[in-house]
Design a protein that fits this description.
heterodimer; A: alpha+beta; 2 domains; four-stranded antiparallel β-sheet; 8 strands; disordered C terminus; B: alpha+beta; Calcium-transporting ATPase, cytoplasmic transduction domain A; Rossmann fold; ten-stranded mixed β-sheet; nine-stranded mixed β-sheet; globular; disordered N terminus; golgi apparatus (chain A); membrane (chain A)
């Protein structure tokens, strides 16, 4: 009797529960699904980090990293690099006069020459960089002071550049829009570097510097474009714009000799426009192609660097350098990566050994202690 | 229970339609309201304010309702037309027009949202390093999703309101029944309700289609009790059978202003008849039909509306439920403050350094980088402040919006595992566990004290009549359970056949048949046919709110005395000789938990009899004769066996005594004020001078696996306290049976019996000494005795009473706590509901601030469920009130084990790791930016591109950790269940303590330094491409970002089962980066990322350095874990290893 009354009660509750409104009654009486996910029984392989399981990993890392590190270190050491500082800070340096006599308005370029000697021949392609120090290309005001659509050849942006370019937006006198606008373009590096080889016989020969191929392919072909119609004269296409205040010549005269390297698609310009990450940086200037015969690209001997000194850096304690470097698959000379790999590899190896000892000492002990439980 | 509308501050306002009440309010509870979905709260506050204002305006203690809007006859009373709200239920918060402004306002009241809004506005106003999109987009996303969700919920509420407000209602007007819409109902309208209809508002029951003026009602949707309750029509109006008659009624009702208590109502009806003095009748809760209840088994009723719309008791309920916050949340907020501090100090440091650095004008404004004229003219203080704000904006990502979203999502989605759990599904009930709030998931893993109810929680609450003792003789029904009924005559052991004994026995059985509030439900529906076939004969069955009563009446049936029905105030009993005896039921003195007894006054053919049954402690003092000693001994013996005992007594009343009692009762019942108190006084006067008849014993079996559960909880380091209203002996027996006390447990008693002999003071100090001595000894010896404390309600209130003698001896409270701290188990018996809550509060506020959990099944447990940090309701037989007010509801007590040991453990570990990881990954993210400032002239140049800044937290790194935090299982479910002691590993919020937080933050800083300087040395003045071309600052940032994303994602890879998510997430990053850099995006004014990612990947050293940096940044964490595990493993770690060994062993055997 009791059981029956109990059931009836339940039935009653059941009934009234579902009859009130469908919403609550329906899901309540549903038994949950017995799926692995809902019952939290998903198969999972959980690596438990014990000395035993981690040991092999450490040794493997050590064994892989150390050879890589050695390889990198050796490669880096084989790279030849030569650096010339031509800022002209010291009174006896060749460019001291040019550096001191610099004025923004001077029309006559100041030229100075620096002599240097390569003790070892440079094989394969040699890359010529200019380097600047204490130059904050990554300053926020500087980084954003450009108009990418103007550089991409958008006509409306050419005559009406983005406000971000301020205060290098319009020419203060003519009020014409500046092309290319902004602080980055305005401060384009405009020293000209020429390299002469003093042959042992006393003659000097000019080293051929290739000025193409120094910018990213995508920048040169997609991101940077000259405005207007290709058929028109470049000068026409930049009509109605002013040159950046600090430039000596307008953008369409950056390289009059090569129409494919003039205007916005001038590679020196493109390289400059890629702002550097750190205040001390170098940028690719020229490439010295390796010679078809087996003679080294740059033989050891005396060289003369002829600088047309236009770019002032003394005001902010900057430095200017010219760097010659060969390149391997891993880039220029940088021992850091190799050393880091060797160090990390060794640490891992060492930790492996330490863990091995710990494993012997503790793990076996704790396990044997646990098993009786 | 404090349910006054005053403390609604942090409550939900979820008034809904009947059925959707549960669905929607549940829904809104499930989805955390505290953070994102805060507005419910605000709305509620607003509403309560509104209400309280309105309340003050026309504050009166009672209201007068004019039935049928008829004025009282002149001279009786002044007719004051009163204005009441109409019967419109408004649970929606918004209208179409105010949705957007109101919702936005409510969302931005949340401090986090407001913070992000401020950042966004700062970005809009000043020249900031990052575009406003970076903070605007996530904020917009969060706000929109929340708005859509809330809008949808409100739309549902609108729909529900609408359907409810427009549902048809029959109103009696001009002697006709008129159909109208529910919301047009006004106070004073006479309403007709038909069978199975729900009441449209709170009504005073006037008359019924049943002759006896009763009706049956279920209140399932109000309090979950499915039993039919009887309500009584006003006696003077119950004769009105037609609309015309009802409409002719001329009366007013005076009643109290709306109150939320469902079970209390005080009022008076004044009926005016022509030229006669008005008749006054008292009205009580038994006359009040509540909105939301459903009429059953009654054709139709007439009733008059007294409370309408938002003033109905249902609307006033659903309000107060205090918000509970978990310990994890508190530590999370503390961490946030630390990070805010770090953020501000970072910004200050950088601002100061910036101005120090650019002191010389060549640095400030070199020729290549001039300011605009405007900037130059700005005052230096303004400039510095702007710079400070800009730094704040740059570093603001250290406190991510997405953390809130992820934590909320984790809690919300994670709580589904509880509802899905098959092991917590109860076939009998057809229900699994319920989650009413997902905010407290992780708190389940932190519980230190469990307070459990006994009846219905530890025990089945499935009462079975075992035996009775009449005048010292024991009777046992032969047919025990099994639903079998033996022939009535054979089922009594005739031990004593002396005439006096027989008389007493007859009286005893009659007393049990009469002294109860059981209803008989006749089977007449489809169910009945089914059951009729099943039983082989037409049956009826008993319904009562108390299972004890049902057990007793059924036990009597087995002993040959069948209670048939209550008809026209006559109770009919079929006695052993198949004769029907009729008793006129005159008064029922209802049971209450203070008196702990109930009585009826009946009239048999010639005499007035009062029968009383109740707890022994409340009966014995009122007994004047009878075999007290024998019965007492028997009762005590039963109690030791764990049986629930009740004593039965009677008193013969003379005519005059009866009249006197009648007078007392009616006077008390008619009282408008303090009725409860006056009734209690009246009962006290009437219920005395009893003759003891005997006692009954009812067994309440232990719930399945209750002992196992308690044992597991003990092993898990949780202290279990049993709080019960039962008597000490019964409760103690249950405690032994459920292994709360073991044979070895030394029991300390702190009961009234003992304090009678000694002063409370002495007892307390003595116990304290015992405990302390034991502790000092057990410090040396290996087997320490554990203590169990038994305390009763009276002593407890004495202990808790603020002591007068403050001087010298200190507070009893502290000593009591000290004793409790040293006891493994505590039993508190004879507890009133409010005392249960007091105990919980006492422990909660003790100096260790332990996390408490209360579990119970009945309405008397609600107060402690609401008080404890986590409240768990058992879906028991005493209605659903506990389950409704709880945070989690489970079908059986045994499910508590899995709830705490498995789910709680998992949730805690998951959320703890989630929180730590979030802080870690944002340190990694932002610290390189901070370092970069030292190399870019403190110019606020961001390291990463805008897209990366925006998406880092939203999409690149959020999914793996969310999934990880949903499915992480460092130990299997079986291990957790097998080894409850693993619970101790996470006790006291151990994974979110300051050292752990510091460790993660340091790890983040270390990794950030590795990323930044790794990339720095790689970029340092050299090229790393094979064609000699150089990379710029964006490549630098992208390299760091790539290493960052990989490291941070791989750190979440502790469980390789998630492989696809991890790799998927990383793949998404790579594909996004390729796409982002692969196109010259139109409409963007910069193309800084064009081909940056591809160019970087085309360089060998970039790959090598990415691999190297990831390895280096993962190393320390791995080493730390390995060393910790090897040198001092936690129990959890040992369990992991052990499982592994088991597996290996198994494999070994199989091979």
């Amino acid at each position: 009797m009791m059981a029956s009354s109990y059931n009836a009660k339940e039935e009653d509750g059941h009934h009234s529960g579902s009859s009130t409104h469908g919403g609550t009654g329906a899901p309540k009486n549903k038994k949950p699904d017995n799926t692995a996910f809902k019952q939290q029984r998903l198969p999972a392989w959980q690596p438990i980090l014990t000395a035993g399981t981690v040991l092999p990993a450490f040794f493997v890392i050590g064994l892989i990293f150390i050879p890589i590190g050695i390889g990198l270190y050796v490669t880096s050491n084989n790279i030849k690099e030569y650096e010339v500082d031509y800022t002209g800070v010291e009174p006896n340096s060749p460019c001291y006069d040019c550096a001191n006599s610099f004025t923004w308005n001077s029309t006559t370029p100041c030229v100075c020459t620096v002599n240097f000697t390569l003790t070892q021949p440079f094989e394969s392609n040699v890359y010529m960089y200019y380097g600047l120090s204490n130059f904050y290309q990554n300053h926020r005001r500087y980084v954003k002071s450009r108009d990418d659509s103007q550089l991409n050849g958008v006509q409306s942006s050419l005559t009406n550049p983005s406000k971000e370019c301020k205060p290098y937006l319009t020419n203060p006198e003519t009020k014409l829009p500046i092309a290319p606008c902004g602080a980055i373009a305005n401060s384009l590096f405009n020293d000209t570097l020429e390299l002469y080889y003093s042959q042992p016989d006393g003659n000097t020969s000019k080293v051929t510097l290739v000025k193409r191929g120094i910018a990213w392919y995508t920048d040169k072909n997609v991101k940077f474009r000259n405005p207007g119609n290709d058929k028109d004269n470049l000068t026409e296409r930049f009509k109605g714009t002013a040159k950046p205040v600090n430039w000596l010549k307008p953008v369409y005269e950056l390289d009059p000799s090569d129409p494919e390297n003039n205007g916005f698609i001038n590679e020196d310009f493109i390289v400059w426009m890629r702002t550097a990450a750190l205040p001390t940086f170098r940028k690719l200037y020229r490439i010295i192609q390796k010679k078809p015969d087996s003679t080294p690209t740059l033989a050891s001997g005396k060289y003369v660097l002829k600088i047309t000194y236009n770019y002032p850096v003394r005001s902010f304690d900057g430095r200017k350098r010219m760097i010659l470097s060969t390149i391997s698959w891993m880039g220029g000379k940088n021992p850091f990566l190799g050393i880091a790999y060797i160090t990390v590899g060794s640490i891992c190896f060492f930790l492996g050994v330490v863990l091995l000892i710990i494993h012997q000492k503790y793990d076996t002990r704790s396990n044997s202690a646990d098993i009786p439980n | 229970m404090c349910r006054s509308s005053g403390d609604v501050n942090s409550a939900f306002f979820t008034v809904h339609t009947l059925g959707t009440v549960e669905a929607l309010s549940l829904h809104s509870l499930c989805f955390p309201s505290r953070c994102l979905f805060h507005s419910l709260w605000c709305h509620n506050l607003f509403f309560s304010l509104l209400r309280s204002c309105a309340g003050e305006e026309n504050w009166v203690d009672s209201r007068t309702v004019y039935i049928g809007h008829k004025e009282p006859p002149p001279g009786a009373e002044a007719y004051i037309p009163q204005r009441y709200p109409d019967n419109r239920i408004v649970s929606s918060k918004y209208t179409f027009w105010n949705f957007i402004p109101k919702n936005l306002f409510e969302q931005f009241r949340r401090i986090a949202n407001f913070y992000f809004l401020v950042i966004f506005l700062v970005q809009l106003i000043i020249d900031t390093p990052t575009s406003p999109v970076t903070s605007g987009l996530p904020l917009f996303f969060v706000i929109t999703v929340t708005a859509i969700k809330q809008g949808y919920e409100d739309w549902l509420r609108h729909k529900a309101d609408c359907s409810l407000n427009e549902c048809p209602v029959d109103v009696v007007q001009q002697e006709k029944v008129v159909r109208t819409q529910s919301h047009k109902l006004r106070v004073g309208d006479i309403v007709m309700v038909r069978e199975d209809e729900t009441f449209p508002c709170d009504l005073i029951f006037l008359s019924s289609s049943r002759d006896d003026g009763t009706c049956y009602v279920t209140t399932t949707s109000l309090d979950g009790e499915s039993s039919h309750k009887t309500y009584y029509a006003v006696p003077d109006t119950m004769a009105f059978k037609t609309e015309q008659e009802v409409d002719s009624l001329h009366a007013t009702i005076e009643c109290e202003q709306p109150q939320p208590d469902l079970y209390k109502f005080v009022g008076r009806i004044n009926i005016y008849k022509d030229k006669e003095e008005p008749v006054s009748r008292t009205l009580g809760a038994e006359n009040l039909l509540l909105r939301g209840a459903t009429l059953k088994n009654t054709q139709h009723i007439y009733a008059v509306a007294v409370y309408t719309g938002m003033e109905t008791k249902m609307a006033l309920n659903y309000q107060s439920k205090s918000q509970k916050r978990s310990a994890v949340e508190k530590s999370m907020n503390a961490f946030l403050i630390v990070y805010l501090f770090i953020l501000i100090s970072k910004a200050v440091i950088n601002t100061v350094l910036k101005y120090a650095w650019q002191w010389s004008p060549d640095r400030d404004e070199p020729w290549y980088n001039h300011r605009t004229e405007n900037e130059r003219q700005r005052h230096v203080v303004i400039r510095a402040f702007t710079d400070f704000l800009a730094f704040m904006v740059l570093f603001n990502y250290i406190i991510p919006v997405s953390m809130y979203v992820t934590v909320e999502m984790q809690k919300f989605l994670g709580s589904y595992f509880i509802t899905w759990d098959e092991e917590m599904f109860d076939e009998e009930l057809g229900q699994g566990a319920q989650v009413n709030t997902s905010d407290l998931n992780e708190e389940l893993g932190q519980v230190e004290y469990v307070f459990t109810d006994k009846t219905g929680t530890l025990t089945e609450n499935n009462m079975e009549f075992i035996e009775c003792c009449v005048d010292g003789n024991v009777y046992i029904p032969h047919a025990i359970c099994n639903g079998q009924i033996l022939s009535a005559a054979s089922s009594i052991d005739m031990i004593d056949s002396s005439p006096g004994g027989k008389r007493i026995r007859d009286l005893f059985f009659r007393a049990l048949c009469l002294c109860h509030t059981v209803q008989v439900k006749e089977e007449e529906t489809v169910d009945g046919i089914k059951r009729g076939i099943h039983q082989g004969r037409p049956t009826s069955f008993y319904i009562s709110s108390s299972p004890d009563e049902v057990a007793l009446v059924e036990g009597m049936k087995r002993l040959g005395y069948t209670y048939l029905r209550l008809k026209d105030n006559y109770m009919e009993i079929l006695n052993k000789d198949d004769e029907i005896e009729r008793f006129e039921l005159l008064h029922v003195l209802n049971f209450d938990s203070v008196r702990r007894r109930m009585s009826v006054i009946v009239k048999s053919i010639s005499e007035y009899l009062m029968f009383c049954k109740g707890a022994d402690s409340s009966i014995f003092p009122r007994v004047v004769s009878g075999k007290v000693e024998q019965v007492k001994a028997h009762v005590e013996q039963n109690a030791v066996e764990g049986l629930r005992t009740l004593c039965v007594a009677y008193r013969r009343l003379s005519e005059s005594e009866y009249q006197e009692a009648c007078h007392y009762l009616t006077e008390a019942k008619l009282a408008l004020q303090d009725r409860e108190q006056r009734l209690a006084q009246a009962y006290d006067v009437i219920e005395r001078d009893f003759v003891l008849l005997g006692a009954t014993a009812v067994e309440d079996r232990l719930q399945e696996k209750a002992a196992d559960t308690i044992e597991s909880l003990h092993k898990a380091g949780i202290k279990v306290w049993v709080l019960t209203g039962d008597k000490m002996e019964t409760a103690a027996a249950t405690c032994y049976a459920s292994k709360l006390f073991r044979r070895s447990t030394q029991i300390l008693e702190l009961t009234k019996k003992r304090t009678k002999e000694q002063s409370l003071h002495d007892v307390l100090f003595e116990l304290n000494r015992t405990v302390l001595r034991q502790r000092s000894i057990s410090g040396l010896s290996v087997d320490c005795l554990d203590f169990g404390l038994i305390i009763d309600g009276a002593t407890l209130s004495a202990v808790l009473k603020p002591s007068q003698e403050v001087s010298g001896h200190g507070n009893y409270r502290e000593i009591f706590l000290e004793i409790c701290r040293n006891c493994s188990a505590v039993l508190c018996c004879r507890m009133a509901p409010l005392q249960k809550a007091q105990i919980v509060k006492l422990i909660k506020s003790s100096k260790e601030h332990p996390i408490t959990l209360a579990v119970g099944d009945g309405a008397n447990d609600v107060s402690m469920i609401l008080e404890a940090h986590v409240g768990i309701g058992i879906m028991g037989k005493e209605g659903r009130q506990a389950a409704r007010n709880s945070d989690y509801a489970i079908p059986k007590f045994k499910h508590l084990k899995k709830m705490l040991l498995v789910h709680g453990h998992y949730y805690y570990i998951r959320i703890a790791e989630l929180v730590q990881y979030f802080f870690y990954k944002n340190v990694c993210f932002i610290f390189p930016q901070f370092l970069y400032q030292f190399f870019c002239g403190f110019s606020q140049q961001p390291l990463y591109d805008t897209a990366y800044l925006t998406l880092y937290n939203i999409s690149f790194t959020s999914l793996p950790i969310l999934l990880y935090s949903l499915v992480e299982q460092h130990v299997t479910i079986d291990t957790l269940k097998r080894e409850p002691s693993l619970y101790r590993d996470i006790a006291k919020n151990s994974l979110l303590r300051w050292p752990v937080f510091l460790y993660w933050t340091c790890l983040g800083v270390f990794d950030a330094v590795i990323f930044f300087f790794g990339a720095y040395f790689l970029f340092d003045n050299t090229t790393f491409t094979s064609n000699g071309q150089m990379f710029g600052n964006w490549t630098f940032g992208t390299l760091i970002f790539t290493v960052l994303v990989f490291t941070v994602t791989l750190k979440a890879t502790k469980c390789l089962g998630l492989g696809f998510v991890i790799w998927g997430s990383l793949l998404f990053y790579v594909i996004f980066s390729l796409l982002w850099g692969g196109i010259v995006w139109p409409f963007l004014n910069y193309q800084r990322m064009y081909y940056v990612f591809m160019q970087m990947l085309s360089s060998g050293p970039a790959w090598l350095s990415i691999i190297l940096l990831i390895t280096v940044s993962l190393l320390p964490d791995v080493i730390k874990k390995v060393l910790c595990r090897a040198i001092c493993p936690t129990a959890t770690e040992r369990a992991q290893v052990r499982k592994r060994f088991l597996k290996i062993d198994l494999k070994f055997y199989l091979c």
